[in-house]
Structure formats: structure tokens, C-alpha cells
Amino acid sequence: MRDEGTLKSEICQAIDRGKAETFAAAEAILRNPELGFKEFATAQLVSDRFQHLGIPHRTGLAITGVKGVIDTGRPGPTVAVMGELDSVVVYDHPFANPETGAAHACGHNIQIAMVLAIAAALQATDAVSDLSGRIVLFAVPAEEYVEVDYRVNLARQGKLEFLGGKPELIRRGEFDDVDVAMLTHLTPRREERKLSMLDSMNGCVVKQMQFIGRAAHAGSAPHQGINALNAAMVALTAIHTQRETFRDSDTVRVHPIITRGGDLVNVVPADVRMETFVRGKTAAAMEDADAKVNRALRAGAIAVGGKVKVTTLPGYLPLTTCKPLAALFKENSLRVVKPEEYTEGGHLTGSTDMGDISHIMPTIQPMAGGAEGTSHGSDYRVVDMENACLTPAKAMAMTVVDLLHGDAAGARELLADYKPAMTREQYLAFMRKMNSEMVYEG
Ligand SMILES: [Zn+2]
Ligand SMILES: [Zn+2]
User: Fold this and answer.
1) Residues 6+ apart with CB under 8 A from 442
2) Distance from the CA of 161 to the center of ligand 1, in angstroms?
3) In the prediction, which pLDDT does 193 show?
């Protein structure tokens, strides 16, 4: 049996040797961006690659997910290395799909390339002969919480219950056979250097609001109408009045938009729609801010004597980094980057469904540099493929070796000391509790 160090070097060399294919996959996905739960071509690319590598896999999980399994045939825990299939909408991004606006302005194409690079390197080095347990290589759908109406429709058709990829995969039991999870996300923030590890990220709930008024001639008979746009405006102002009550330590973010502001200028708006996320560092902070937002929405309806329908959808739970797993990742990172190029700690106010995974199993979401521009912006691009893709792929693959080498003592030790914040059942109950619909008459 090769020792850990030898196996790690062989895997890293294999990742370097497979560079051309890895970069080609990243480029192909970059040029064909797809939105969440519609990533059919990207899923096909992953499936074709797994096929080519001789990795048994299942497709169509939560619509587009692809789950490959490398089984050592020896008992032991299962470690998942994941990548996200989806993109965001940025119409003026240079590689945007001109029809849908889909663009890889969050670097998820690189995540998939990392998973493929690791898959190829594990196979090329016959890593299974020195490991125990299983490695799951998981391309997961729909991390970005976008096109909410489209997803609500999928839910109505019974194709989904939860509107994010990983929550839906958890519900379908696709993480029941996974014990440890990791995924590296790209970052354009320079302060995060080559590789970094945050302590935590915000969670969020997603809200859709409909203000219902009464239509009337806007010029000659506005007194006969009930102006739903004015209700929405009062609600927005009322939301802003809550901001001084949000504690800095809770890092609450509320950022509503109006998605429908009226139909004809000479008709008093009777149907005005808004959407918002309510984000916070803890579930309690999210619940507190959400109650305040609900109050503000009601204020809008009261002011004009209209109605407001508020639909609250469970979003993502806050991300908590598993410290012992992060320590293993750091050790391996320092084999491929200099100490000053690795940063750790801090909190990010965005949200990800890796947060949900982090509530039920040891999870890390390291960040890799190599991107530039604005996250979700038209100037977002990857400028250093080596750093963005190969470096994190090596660090993750070596962490897998630490966990599963020999009789997988590394993973067994990690799991023995770990207590999940929630069981899968508690998680599903929490998500369902966050789901609500309320109609308030002002
Ligand atoms: Zn994103
Ligand atoms: Zn992202």
C-alpha cells in the first residue's frame, strides 16, 4: 500500500497531467451556461465524462443532478466532493446566453471542472486500492435561488418540494449515504488570496409579496381605486425603518425588489408584486427579521386599505464550517500554496445551500482565488485557471486521502467527534415550518 504522502503526490501529478481536459470542460460549460433545474447539457457533459472514466453514476437527481460513486469495496465512511451545475442571469456578461441571460458569473463551471479533475485523478492513480469507504462525486443542481416563479410551478407539478438543489436532494435521500461533504467556491475578493476558509455564511428565507388594490381611472377617478403600488412603497419604507433594529452581529440583509409595478399608466395599479430575501447569521436572526418584514408589509396594506398576500419559502440555512475538517484542508492547502496565500476566518453575508448540508454533516466550503471582477457581475471572469481550478482540486483530493486512507481512520475519527446541528428529519421539519402563506387585509 502506498503511504498517504505518496498517494497524494501521485494524485496531484495526475491532476496536472489531466489539465487540458479539465480546462476544456470548464470552457465548454462557460460557453453553454444554464439556469438551475435546467442544467441538462451540463449534466450530460458530467455524465459523459463519468462514463468515459468508468465511474458508475446516476442522473436526473432533483431533475438534473449527477452522482458518481467510486467504491473501494472496503467498509468505511463516504466523502462527497461536490460541484454546482447552475449559472446566474447577467445579460451583458461576455459569455451570457443571449436568450436566457444565463452566465457563469459565479464560477460554478470551475467547480464542475474540479470534480471531474478529481474523478479522473482518483481513477488514473487507482486510488481505491489504498482507500476505504466511498467517494461520491456529485454535480448538484440549482444553488442560485433564481426564477422563483418557475420553481414554484415545478413544485406545483410535484417535480420538487424545495426550490434549491441541495435541500431537494436531501429530501430525496441523496445525502443519506454521505457522511462528509466539501465543495470549493471561487471568489474574486483579493483579500481571500489563493485559498481560504470562512467560518460561516448567512442563511436566508425567500419571500414573494402581492399587494392587491382596486383598478380605476388614474386621471379621472383615482378616488375609486386602491393603489397597490403605494402600498408597496409604504411597505418598502417600513422595511427600511426596521434596519436600525438589526444587530450588527446578526448580519441581517433584506433587499426587496418590485417585480411588477403596475400595468398601464392610466390605471391605478391593482396588482403589484415584490420579492425579497431575508438573510441572517443564525436561524433566530432570520426569524426575527422575517417577523419585522411581515409587519412592514402589513403596514403597506393598512395605509391604502388594500390586501397583501405574503408567501414565505424556506431558503438556505446559515453555513457553519466544520473546524476539524477545515484543519485537514488547511494542512493539504499548505502543500500547494504558501502560508501567506491561505487565509481563514470571517463571515460572509451571502447564502448558499451548502449551509443546509453543514447542518446535517461535517462540511467545508473553501474559497479559491483566480477570479476577477464582480461576483454576479458582467466583468466576472476567471484569470488564473491553475489557481481557480487545479489548486483547490488538489487540496480537496488530498483531504479525501486523509479521510479515507488505509481503513479510513481519518474519517472515522472526524465522525466520532461530530454532532450534527440537525438530523435529516429535523432539517425537513424546519424547512416545512418556514413555508407559509398569509393574506392580510388592511
Ligand atoms: Zn452565486
Ligand atoms: Zn456561487
Assistant:
1) 231, 298, 300, 301, 302, 303, 304, 305, 306, 307, 308
2) 22
3) 79
Q: What is the pLDDT of residues 22-65, one digit of tens each?
A: 999 999 999 999 999 999 999 999 999 999 999 999 999 999 99
Distance CA 185, CA 20 (A): 21
Residue 134 Cα, ligand 2 centroid: separation in angstroms? 26
Domain count along the chain: 2
Nearest-5° Cα angle at 284, 163 to 415: 75
Tell me, in angstroms, the distance from the centre of ligand 2 to residue 106's CA: 5
Residue ranges in 337-383 assigned as alpha helix (H): 354-360
Q: Which of 312, 245, 248 is nearest to 281 (CA)?
A: 248
- Which ligand ends up closest to the CA of 108? 2
Cα of first residue to Cα of last residue in the chain, in angstroms, is 73
Distance 166 CA to ligand 1 centre (A): 14
Residue 331 and residue 305 in one domain: no
Sequential DSSP letters for 80-97 = EEEEE---EE-TTSTT--
Q: Indicate yes or no: pTM above 0.90.
A: yes
Smallest-distance ligand from the CA of 145: 1
Q: What is the Cα–Cα distance from 83 to 300, expressed in whole angstroms?
A: 42
Ligand nearest to the backbone CA of 375: 1
Centroid of ligand 1 to alpha carbon of 375 (angstroms):
7
CA-wise closest residue to 269 among 239, 225, 237, 310: 225
pLDDT given at position 189: 83
Pairwise CA distance, residues 368 & 389, whole Å: 8
CA of 344 to the centre of ligand 1 (A): 20
- In CATH, what number is assigned to the domain containing residue 13? 3.40.630.10
27 in the same domain as 49: yes
Separation of alpha carbons 368 and 197, rounded Å: 9
Grid coordinates belonging to 17: 497531467
Low-confidence ranges of the chain (pLDDT < 50): none
Domain range for 378 = 4-199+321-426
